[in-house]
Amino acid sequence: MHRRRIVAGLAAAAATALVLAGCSSGSSAGGSQSKDAMTWSMWIAGKEDKAAWQKVADTVKSEDGITLTIQGAPFENYFTKLSTQLSAGSAQCIVSMQSLRAANYTSSLLSLDDLAKQDGLDLSAYDSTALDGMKVDGKLYGLPYDTGPILMFYNKDLFKQAGVADPEPGWTTDDFEQAGEALKAKGITEFGSTVGDLNLESMIYGYNGGRVITKAGKIDATDTKFADGLDWLASLVKKGYATQASSDTSTPGNDFAAGKVAMYTDGPWSLISQKAKVKFDLGVTTLPAGTSGPSTFAAGSGFGVSKQCKYPEQAFKAVQTMTSEKVLTSLAEQGRAFPARTAAQDAWYSSAGIDGAETALKAALAKSSPLPGNKQSDQLGQLFTQYALQAVNGQTSGKDTMSSIAGQLGTQ
Fold first, then answer.
1. 344 and 400 belong to one structural domain
2. Is 294 left (phi over 0), alpha (psi -120 to 50) or beta?
3. Do 281 and 134 share a structural domain?
4. Which of 6, 100, 205, 240 is the most exposed place for a label (fewest CB within 10 A)?
5. In 318-332, which positions are buried (b, 16+ CB within 10 angstroms) versus exposed (e)?
6. How far apart are CA 223 and CA 174, in angstroms?
7. Distance CA 148, CA 127 (A)
8. 129/158 same-domain check
9. Does a structural domain hold residue 155?
10. 129 and 26, same structural domain?
11. Cβ–Cβ < 8 Å for 100, 4
12. For 185-241, how does the pLDDT look when each residue is reduced to its tens digit (9 = 90+)?
């Protein structure tokens, strides 16, 4: 989930420091593959993250007899490294993949449909949105381990201080702006603006249904509703309900944790870590619903099998174990991922220990749609940082902004 941050998945957990010692074997995929020993490419965010994923690898060893050696990189560098390995013919057998980027790697990953059918895997055990997110043109390129819709995190203490009721799931954009006015009257900025693509696109999708990437995964930067959505976000900044957007997509979350804003958008993958970080009562609700009714985008991550893998059947066995109910329940209990298997989701709710989180997340999931990836998704994210930033900050209109973006992208 995102970068195209997740959004997905444990994207928000990508840290600035990575302990690589012992994490990478340093050998090529071709030289390290066997039926009972292979490598797994994963984004790693330091010692604790590495230890959590090592437990997953250990489970594969104990249950399937396959030794997985993790080759890690920080999320910010992961896909650059992966692309280099793929072009050099040295990719790992098992490849961690974010749903938003899957479209860029279909030529390098195996379609898993035949393997799933061959093994009799019950795909209905996975959340349908999570599973759809790992598909490109109807073909499955990864088994998902996490998923999640974009939500609104809020500071209950600041809402109480301003005499504003906690926003309930299903609240509207009118409610959102009324709360912004009341918070402003108490010297509190309601919302941390962002131009991070998944978050930006979700806010506008919730506002009026505008979208730049169609359901079919095609780019359409001419969507007038999306331009109108940019103008709406700019109006929030102008009214003093929202901060000016920053090119640093971590700013809204940092401002929220510091108590500088009362709300910001994020995914469930960040909820438990934010709870541990903040010094106030943390709440979560759905995005404010506009003319199209309650809606949000969802994204996630999963594990695929490289076409360079000499033993795809064994690799797929490992991937099934890595996304099993047992493993995903364990990750949920650690607060590391909102599980893509529905049977493991209760463990996450219990671990979160946040009042209202289950109600809000279930409401958002019921109204969420997977945000498809596109081969130009990364470029789109960069253009949002360049052009949508100006729109949200009131320097250009939404219409002119999207015209500039369309001129750079064309339609794919």
1. no
2. beta
3. no
4. 240
5. bbbbbbbeebbbbbb
6. 23
7. 10
8. no
9. yes
10. yes
11. yes
12. 999 999 999 999 999 999 999 999 999 999 888 999 999 999 999 999 999 999 999
Residue 18 has pLDDT above 80, yes or no: no
Are residues 90 and 101 located together in one domain of the fold?
Answer: yes
DSSP bridge partners of 109: 306
pTM of the model: 0.84
Q: Report the candidate in 9, 14, 12, 198 with the shortest Cα–Cα distance to residue 98.
A: 9
Q: What is the pLDDT of residues 87-137, one digit of tens each?
A: 888 778 999 999 989 999 999 999 999 999 999 999 999 999 899 999 998
Residue with tokens 């339609």: 411
Question: In this structure, is residue 368 part of a structural domain?
Answer: no
Residue 209 region, left (φ>0) first, then alpha (ψ -120 to 50), else beta?
left
Residues 404 and 283 grouped into a single domain: yes
Query: Which single residue is written with the structure tokens 């409610």?
Result: 175
- Is residue 371 assigned to a domain? no
Note down the domain range covering 310. Answer: 10-148+300-361
